[in-house]
Design goal:
The protein is α/β, with parallel strands linked by helices and about 230 residues long. About 50% of the residues lie in helices and about 15% in strands. Strands 1, 2, 3, 4, 5 and 6 form a 6-stranded parallel sheet that branches.
């Protein structure tokens, strides 16, 4: 699966969040990082969309919307003749959002100071995805990254990589993704101690996966029994 990350930011060189995310996807061979230029080559942009399976729009939230460059891209590139009249070249592809904000998540909850949830604010993009016949993914939202601990940032790297590259997002797929990453790292290192450590981590992950699978099966059985009662 090939993923296209379309980044919109007016001062990307000075953006801590965007530079962090760019570093986080280093090494993902099937991911294309594309910062919107000042002048769009519409034919190139449309060709990129056709070549990729998952399209991610990535931007900071400014006044409840994306920066102007992304609005211009939407208006200029996703024309009716290209996007939803005739052949619909984007139909069946996936459409995701990576959005960063400067305030805490609690403000975007019911009763919060913003008086709107992120789902409500990002609803127009869901409508765009549906118009184009694309599958809309749950948005990946990052609140106040500058206040995160190093441990939290490391976990964010994993979650971001999964959002860009993982085919599905079930528990089974999550475990399979981790196992694949461990296998790649094991193959890439010649350090025997590190290889053994990676093997051990893989075995522990497999054991935990089996326990979670058994637990899920037991929960389903209990629910079925309760339903029959």
């Amino acid at each position: 699966m090939k993923t296209l990350v379309i980044v919109s930011h007016p001062e990307i060189e000075n953006s801590m969040v965007q530079n962090f995310l760019k570093a986080s996807c280093t090494g993902l061979e099937e991911v294309t990082w594309h910062v919107l230029p000042a002048i769009l080559d519409v034919a190139f942009e449309q060709a990129q969309l056709k070549m990729h399976d998952r399209i991610i729009l990535q931007f900071p939230l400014y006044w409840y919307a994306a920066p102007a460059s992304l609005k211009n891209w939407l208006d200029t590139v996703l024309t009716g003749d290209f996007a939803f009249n005739g052949s619909q070249p984007l139909a069946g592809k996936e459409f995701g959002l990576v959005v960063s904000t400067g305030i805490a998540a609690k403000h975007f909850q019911a009763g919060g100071s913003e008086q709107a949830t992120m789902s409500e604010i990002l609803r127009p993009y869901e409508l765009v995805a549906r118009k184009l016949g694309m599958t809309y993914l749950t948005p990946f939202v990052i609140h106040q990254l500058g206040y995160w601990s190093e441990t939290a940032k490391q976990l964010l790297v994993v979650d971001y990589q999964r959002y860009l590259s993982q085919q599905n997002f079930t528990l089974t797929d999550k475990v399979a993704w981790f196992q694949a990453q461990l296998a790649q790292r094991q193959a890439a290192t010649e350090d025997e101690a590190q290889q053994q450590q990676l093997v051990l981590i893989g075995e522990q992950l497999a054991e935990q996966s089996e326990l979670l699978t058994d637990l899920n099966w037991q929960v389903q059985m209990i629910r079925q029994e309760e339903g029959e009662g």
